[in-house]
């Protein structure tokens, strides 16, 4: 019984098979839509793209104009800043130069009161040892006279005091003179700066007047040039009209517009024509071309009909194949179902027989002795 059993189809398996078949049919339909060149449509909206490109160009032009305006303002501001910075540096440089000149002229190191204490050449200028007071060297025990031990101490002290007073008065006079010169230099600097500003203002006015005069002269010149250009264009237009009229007259009376077919005849044969003189085909040639075109149209329609019939034939064959496949699958399922029913009935009958035999064996075993049981079993089995 175990060797004759087969797999039983469940509703879940049938549903899975139906889902696979549905997906297979959808994939076939999608491939038909994608790989069919007649039904596939691929393209884009060119008008919308042109509008987007135009808007982008307008946006870029506006952004560029705004950046150029900002750049011009920045350049103007940078120019003004550079002018002011240069003027400030020039004024500072002139002031430093004036201060340096004043220090070199009126504040020399030699004019200071304590210069003798910091003079680097003091030792070179000073005399070695003492050479006064009637003592040549004063070298007794290696000592010289100390400060204030000379004989002319009082005269020297008086002379130093007088000298200090003179130095103080001289320094005061020099300080007053320096202050006066500094004030004079500041006044002169202010006056010079005002003169420079006035000159710059005057030059700016002259430049503005000159620019206005130049603009007026350029405007007058442009106006005269425009009048002259308009007059010249008018004359050229009149001359062009006359030339066009003469050309039209010549063409009307010539062979070019009269459409004389003889002028297109070629010297190489009657079947040849001159391209620049040919005026078109004759009515017979046009009728022949129309006839050929009609034949081509009919031939194209015939080919299209054949192709349509061929497509219909292929569709019919594909549908018949799919129908035959479906019928074959249904027949296989029906045969499997019948086989499974027959197998189920056979298994059921065998199971019933086994149950009856087992029940009978149990009854015989319980009602008879062991020896009789084996004898009856052997007899029944024979």
UniProtKB/TrEMBL annotation:
Keywords: Cell projection, Cilium, Coiled coil, Cytoplasm, Cytoskeleton, Flagellum. Microtubule inner protein component of sperm flagellar doublet microtubules. It is found in: Cytoplasm, Cytoskeleton, Flagellum axoneme. This is RIB43A domain with coiled-coils 2. Belongs to the RIB43A family. One of its GO terms (biological process) is flagellated sperm motility. Its main location: cytoplasm. One of its GO terms (cellular component) is sperm flagellum. It comes from Cebus imitator.
């Amino acid at each position: 019984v175990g060797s004759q059993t087969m797999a039983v189809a469940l509703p879940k398996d049938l549903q899975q098979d139906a889902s696979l078949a549905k997906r297979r049919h959808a994939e076939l339909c999608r491939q038909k839509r994608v790989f069919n060149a007649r039904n596939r449509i691929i393209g884009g909206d060119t008008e919308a793209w042109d509008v987007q490109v135009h808007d982008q160009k307008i946006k870029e032009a506006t952004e560029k104009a705004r950046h150029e305006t900002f750049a011009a303002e920045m350049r103007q501001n940078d120019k003004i800043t550079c002018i002011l910075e240069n003027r400030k540096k020039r004024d500072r440089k002139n002031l430093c130069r004036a201060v340096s000149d004043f220090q070199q002229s009126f504040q020399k190191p030699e004019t200071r009161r304590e210069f003798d204490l910091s003079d680097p050449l003091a030792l070179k200028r000073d005399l070695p040892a003492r050479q006064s007071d009637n003592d040549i060297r004063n070298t007794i025990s290696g000592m010289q006279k100390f400060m204030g031990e000379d004989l002319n101490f009082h005269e020297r002290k008086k002379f130093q005091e007088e000298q200090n007073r003179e130095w103080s008065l001289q320094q005061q006079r020099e300080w007053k003179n320096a202050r006066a010169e500094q004030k004079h230099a500041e006044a002169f600097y202010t006056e010079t700066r005002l003169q420079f500003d006035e000159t710059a203002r005057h030059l700016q006015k002259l430049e503005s007047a000159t620019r206005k005069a130049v603009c007026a002269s350029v405007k007058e010149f442009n106006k005269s040039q425009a009048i002259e250009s308009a007059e010249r264009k008018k004359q050229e237009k009149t001359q062009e009209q006359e030339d066009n009229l003469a050309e039209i007259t010549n063409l009307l009376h010539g062979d070019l517009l009269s459409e004389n077919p003889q002028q297109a005849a070629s010297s190489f044969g009657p079947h040849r024509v001159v391209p620049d003189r040919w005026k078109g085909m004759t009515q017979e040639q046009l009728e022949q071309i129309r006839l050929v075109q009609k034949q081509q149209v009919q031939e194209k329609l015939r080919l299209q009909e054949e192709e349509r019939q061929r497509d219909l034939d292929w569709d019919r064959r594909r549908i018949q194949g799919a129908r035959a496949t479906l019928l074959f699958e249904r027949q296989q399922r029906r045969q499997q179902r019948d086989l499974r029913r027959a197998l189920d009935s056979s298994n059921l009958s065998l199971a019933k027989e086994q149950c009856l035999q087992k029940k009978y064996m149990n009854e015989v075993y319980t009602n008879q002795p062991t020896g009789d049981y084996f004898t009856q079993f052997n007899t029944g089995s024979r």
